[in-house]
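Before the break, one more example. Copy the sequence into your notebook; we will annotate it together after we see the structure.
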Amino acid sequence: MFSALVRLRYKLMWAQVRTDSGKIALFFGLYLLIGVFAIFMALGGLGGALAAVELGRGEMVARLMLAGLMMNGIGLSLLFGLGPSEAFTEGSLRRYPLDSQERFVIRHFIGLLDPVWLLLIAGIIGLVFGFIWFGGESVLAGIPASVLFILANYLLTVTLLTVIGLLMQTRRGATLLGALMILLLSFGPLAISSLTPGTRDRMWQVVDLCLRILPPGAAASMITGQDLLKVAGGAGLLILWCVSMFMLLRTIEKKPRVSEPGRAGAIVWDNLYDQTAGIFGSRYRPMVSRSLRYHLRCNIIRFSLISSPLVILMLRYLIPGYGEKSHLSMSIAIFFILSSANGAAMMLNLFGYDGAGIRRFAVLPIRFADALKAASLASLILRGIAFLVAFTLWVIIYRNRSLTWQAVLIVLTVSVAGMIMFNGLGLWVSIFAPKRGDFEAMWNNRLSLGANIVVIGGAIIPFWVMITVMERIQPETLSRLWWAPALFLVLCVGFYGFSLKFIDIPLRSRKEKLINLLSGASDN
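Here is what the structure looks like once it is written out:
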C-alpha cells in the first residue's frame, strides 16, 4: 500500500509539471537544484566538516551548519508550501483501508520524500559522513543523530505550517500573523543594529545557548561527542523534540477546522473605499470600491502590501559595506524593484482571485473591460500607499547620508514611473497569462509564467543597470540629471494610458476563455 501511494504521489507531481504552473515550478526547481547542490558541495556537507575539523571547533561549526539546514527546511516549506498538505490530504487517504495512525504516518512519510526535503537530507547526511571521515567521529553516534535530526526538523516544520494554517483561517489570526512578520522583519534588524558591541556579543551568546537546546545543538552534540554521556544527552534531547512535536501535531490535526462566524452589521455607504474610488469618476467608482474591499481581504495580497516596503532595508542589512558614492544608484534600483514586486499578486493577476465571481462582470450593466481597468486602478492606489510608507522609511533611515533634493526627486520620480509602468504591464499579463489563485491561501500561491517573467525582470534589470551606473557615473553627475527621470515618467504615463484605452481589443477576443479558465469551467 505504501509503495503504491508513493508511486501515485510522483505520478501526480509529473502531471503537475505538465501544467503551466508546473513548468514554472520545474524551471525554478532545476535552477534551485543546481544552486543548492553547488552550495552543498562547496560549503556544506563534506566541505563544512573538513573546515570544522581544521579549525578545531567541530561542535560549534556543526551546530551552525545544522541550524542553517533547519532554517532552509522551514523557509522553503513556508515559501513553496511543501509538506504533507501538498502530498496527500487526510480526506483523500480516507479512501484507502487505513486507520487514523496509519494515515498520519503515511502522509508525513510521503511528505518527507518531497524533492526539496531530499536535498536537505542529502546535505545533512553529507555533513555527518564528513565528520565521520575527516574527524574520526563514531558511526554509531553519527548515523542515529542524522536520522533523529531529520525527523525532528521535519516534525517541527510541519507543526509550524499547521499552526500558521490555523491562524490564517480567521481574519484576526491573519492580522496577528502579518503584524508579527512586520515586527520581526522591520524592527528586528533595527533593534539589532542599535545594540552596542558588548550587548550584541551577549545576545549571540544567548542565541548560541538556544541553539544548544534546539535540534541542531542536540544533533551536533551527538555527532561530535567524545564521551557516552554527551552522546546520550544529545540523543535524549532529540528524542524529546521528536516525541513532543509528534504529540503536538497529532493534537492539532485532530482539532476540527474553525471558521470565523459571520458578523452582521449595518451597511455603511460612502465609506473610505467609496470616497477614495470617487477620484476616478462615476464610471469607475463602484468597481474600484468593490476591488479595494475585496482584494484587501485576500491574505496573500495583504501580506505582499504590508511586507513590500521592507525591501528598502536591503540597503542597510542585506547589502552591507556600500559607500556614500553608490547610495543614490542603489536606492534607485531598490525602489524600482519595489515598484515591480509591490502588490504583484494583485497587479499582475487582476481577475485571478475572483474565481467564479468573474462571471458577474459579463452580465452586469457595465463593460467587461471596465471591471479590469477598475481593478488596475485599485491596485495602483494600494501600491501607491505601500510606496509612500517605504519612501517615508527611506527618508527617515537614510536622512544622515546627505540626501539632497535632487536625490529625493530622482528616487520619487523613478518609483512613481515604475509603478505606473508595471500597472500597465499588469493589464496585459492579466488577460494573456492569467492564473486562478486561492483567495484564502497565504503560501504556495504562485503567479503565472508571464507574471513571474515581469517580476523577475523587474528585479534583475535594475541590478545590472545599478552595477553599470556605479562603475561609470559619479553621484554628482546623477544629481545633475535630476530632470531625466521626468521623461521616463512621461513615457510610463503614456504607456499606461495606451494600455487602458486599447486593452478592450484583445480582451473582447479572450473574454470567454478568461472566464472559463478563472471560474474553473475549463477543469471540467
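The chain is about 75% helix and 0% strand. Confidence is low (pLDDT under 50) at residues 40-46. Try to locate both features in your own notes.
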